[in-house]
Specification:
Layout lengths: L8 E6 L2 H6 L5 H9 L16 H8 L3 E3 L7 E4 L4 H8 L11 E6 L5 H7 L6 H18 L4 E4 L2 E4 L2 E9 L4 E8 L6 E3 L2 E3 L8 H12 L7 H4 L7 E5 L10 E7 L2 H6 L5 E2 L6 E3 L5 H9 L4 E3 L3 E10 L2 E6 L16 H18 L2 H14 L14
Parallel strand pairs: 7-12, 14-15
Antiparallel strand pairs: 1-3, 1-4, 2-3, 5-6, 7-8, 7-10, 8-9, 8-16, 11-12, 13-16, 16-17
Helix pairs in contact: 2-3
Protein name: CATSPER1 protein
Length: 383
């Protein structure tokens, strides 16, 4: 008598994609064996995993499809037996140094069109969204804190971007980190992916990402942001991405102390011992990050304040200071989505983060400034 089958199941590797490649050589079957074995929950290396003969045969006989190309790593198992379902769900117990997780969820029947998309190396955004939608729906049904309502529609938030503003009497500034990997190098706001096993909310994601990226004495997120103004979460939809259906920006106001401590044209972060720089990562470094609890990944080496160039009641640009002294990236270009978000939401941000007296003083300053160029103002400010 054949064992009863259950609906299709899928495994999504959130933040674990590179562990599978760097440590297990891309072997899904080895990952399944680790989950089904008596190995420790925290996986630090490619350990010998012992499973019984029936379990091993259940793993070997699975009919599965693996997503390709730029699509996040997804394994879809067609019509698994009850034993196979049990084996698959055991993967969720595993833990990794990257704080990621393997999530098991039901997946719809695979039409011929969906099969082709799963194994395609090149996918358009709508096609990738079709592949990922079952995962998004599953997460939101259990963890509604990741849902953001925008224009009457609900989107899953999968990242958080930190907008740390210093609002002065004459000039306003926003904090950037140097992103050496994208667009040939550019200045961008700190931020990164939601880590569901660690973060409790988008504010938690923003705090963790800031603390991981902006490295300096007393630079913790809840230290450098003003306690007088609660952070604002602003959803942004301009970019088209299946992996990030909406970009949540977490806007906070910086303290005077943080602004003054980082006034160099380029601020070099203080890198901890055993750190591995992302910009110079080699294959053995990536593997070390998965296997050595002492290893730390440093994503950014430099930070700077970009002055917000105003035009009337709006924003015309973000001005990164050119280097005249010291070291650091010479480039002054910034990420276009960051500027676009500020331009679209600046009026609301000012109303909520600037006190009424400051708004009145700024309005008077703007009127008295006449036609002088904002680009000629010095790179300073005062609370």
């Amino acid at each position: 008598m054949m064992a009863a089958e259950c609906p299709n199941l899928a495994i999504y590797l959130e933040e674990v994609r590179y562990f599978l490649q760097d440590v297990l050589g891309g072997s899904w079957q080895d990952l399944l064996r680790l989950g089904a074995s008596d190995a420790e929950d925290l996986i630090l290396d490619r350990v010998e995993s012992h499973v019984d003969k029936c379990t091993d045969e259940a793993i070997r006989s699975m009919c599965f499809f693996v997503s390709r190309g730029k699509c996040p790593l997804l394994l879809v198992i067609e019509h698994p037996t009850q034993l196979q379902c049990q084996v698959i769900r055991r993967v969720e117990r595993l833990r990794f140094l990257c704080k990621g997780t393997a999530t098991v969820f039901p997946y719809p029947e695979l039409t011929s069109g969906l099969r082709k998309k799963l194994v395609s190396a090149k996918l358009k955004v709508p096609d990738m969204l079709e592949i990922l939608s079952p995962y998004y729906d599953f997460i939101l049904s259990r963890e509604p804190q990741w849902a953001l309502d925008v224009q009457g529609r609900s989107f899953i938030a999968r990242c958080a971007i930190v907008v740390m503003l210093f609002l002065g009497e004459q000039s306003d500034f926003v904090w950037h980190v140097w992103d050496s990997e994208n667009e040939g190098g550019q200045w961008a706001f700190p931020g990164g992916d939601v880590c569901r096993v660690h973060d409790q909310s988008l504010l938690g994601t923003a705090e963790r990402e800031w603390n991981e990226e902006v490295l300096g004495p007393g630079f913790a997120f809840n230290v450098v942001r003003s306690p007088d103004f609660e952070p604002i979460i602003i959803p942004f939809l301009e970019g088209k991405s299946a992996r990030y259906p909406v970009q949540p920006y977490v806007v906070a106001r910086a303290t005077t102390e943080f602004f003054q401590a980082t006034q160099a044209q380029r601020y070099r972060f203080q890198v901890p011992p055993h750190a591995i720089s992302k910009s110079g990562c080699k294959e053995e470094d990536f593997r070390r990050l998965h296997t050595d609890p002492k290893a730390t990944l440093v994503e950014h080496d430099w930070g700077t304040w970009a002055r917000i160039e105003r035009q009337g009641n709006g924003i015309s640009g973000l001005i990164v200071p050119e280097i005249t002294t010291g070291e650091g990236p010479a480039a002054t270009n910034t990420r276009w989505e960051n500027l676009a978000m500020l331009q679209k939401n600046w009026k609301d941000i000012e109303m909520r983060l600037r006190s009424p007296s400051q708004r009145s003083a700024l309005a008077g300053y703007s009127k008295s400034k006449g036609k002088g160029s904002a680009a000629q103002q010095s790179h300073t400010g005062h609370d």
